[in-house]
Amino acid sequence: MKPITYNTKNWFVRPAMLMLCLFLLNGIILGQDSSGNEQTPVAVKKIKPEKNTFGSIWIIDNQTVMVPIKGTFEMDIMHRFGTIKNGYKDFLGFFAPSNIRLGFEYVPINNLMVGFSITKANMTWEGYGKYAIIKQTKSKYPVSVTYFGDISLDTRGKDNFVHYSDRLMYFNQLIIARKITPKFSAQVSPSLTHVNIVDGYYYEPGKYRGTMNHEHFAIALAGRYKIKENMGIIVNYDQPITKHRSNNPSPNISFGLEVTTSAHAFQFFMGNYSFITPQRNNYYNRNNFKDGQFLIGFNITRMWNY
Fold first, then answer.
1. For residue range 33-78, what is the model confidence (pLDDT) as tens digits?
2. What is the mean pLDDT of the chain?
3. Which of 12, 50, 171, 237 is least surrounded by CB atoms within 10 angstroms?
C-alpha cells in the first residue's frame, strides 16, 4: 500500500482558482440589475439656467441682466424725440431737437459682452462691458446677477473743458433679476455714477465748491409682462438717492411695448430720460414727470451669431 502524499502545489492553486471564479462571478452579478441586464452609469443632470428672462439687452433706458450667447454681434439704434409739452407746435416733440445713439456689442467669451457707442448729445463716446456673474436656475440660484460698467467721453471742443479728464464720466451698476413666471420678469439695479467735473464756483482763490457731488447713487426698477409669445409690456423707474446741494436730478418713469423676433427687438415707449448715456441720464435729468415732461422714444436692436 502506497503512502498518502499531498501535492502542495494543487492544494494552493485550487482554492485560489475558486476564489478568483467567485470574485469574477460577483463582479458580473453586481454589474447586472434584477432582470439580468447590465447596469449603465446614471447620467448627472446638467443644471440649466432660465432662458429669456428679458427679450433684449435693453429695457428702455437701462441694461437688462441678459448677456447674449458667445459669438453674438449686436447693433443698437436708439432715438429720443423732444418732450410732448409743446403739443402741436412741434407735433408732440417729433419735430423738436432729438437725441440719437448708435451702439455696437460683441460677446467674445461666455457671459461677457463688450461694446462701444456714440451719442448725439455732447458727441459722447462710450466704452462698456457687461458680465453675467450668476444665472437663475430652478434648484440652485433664485436670481440672476450681472455687472455693467460704462466709461463715457464728451468730445465737444476743448473750449468746454479746463482739463482733458473733465470730459470723463463713469457708471457702475449691479443688475439683479428674476424670471418670476413664464410671462413676468423683474429686476432691480443699484448704480453709482462718478463725474470728474461738476458745476460750481470759487469761494476763495484756488478753492472750488461744486453745486453737486462727484458721486451719485441711484436705483432702477424694471419689469416685463408678456402678453403674447413675442410681445410684452415693459416698465421702468429710476430713483435718485444722493442729495446734492442744488440741481438734484428728477426721477424717471417710463413704459411701453416690446416686440421681439429671434434676431430683433423693437421697443416703443414714453419716459423722462433723454440723454441715453446712463451716467448722464442719472446725473443730469431735469425732465419731471409731475410736470408732464415726457418724451417718446424707441430702441431697435439687431443680433447676428457667428
1. 445 455 555 555 677 899 999 999 999 999 999 999 999 999 999 9
2. 88
3. 12
Instruction: Residue 138: count other Cβ atoms within 10 Å of its Cβ.
Output: 10
Indicate the burial class of 10 (C-beta count within 10 angstroms; 0-12, 13-18, 19 or more).
exposed
Determine the length of the chain. Answer: 306
Residue 52's SS3 state is coil
Residue 236 lies in a domain: yes
Residue 52 lies in a domain: no
What's the pTM value of the predicted model, to 2 decimals?
0.83
How far apart (Å, rounded) are the C-alpha atoms in residues 138 and 301?
A: 29
CATH code of the domain covering residue 77: 2.40.160.40
Residues paired with residue 130 on neighbouring β-strands, in sequence order: 113, 148
pLDDT over 90, % of the chain: 76
Element (H, E) at 21: helix 8-30
User: Which residues form the domain of 246?
Assistant: 58-305
Q: Which three cell numbers stand for residue 227?
A: 402678453
Q: What is the mean pLDDT of residues 282-295?
A: 95
Name the burial class of residue 161, with classes exposed (0-12), middle (13-18) and buried (19+) by CB atoms within 10 angstroms of its CB: middle
Predicted confidence at residue 47, as pLDDT, reads 79
CA angle 31, 35, 40 (to 5 degrees): 40
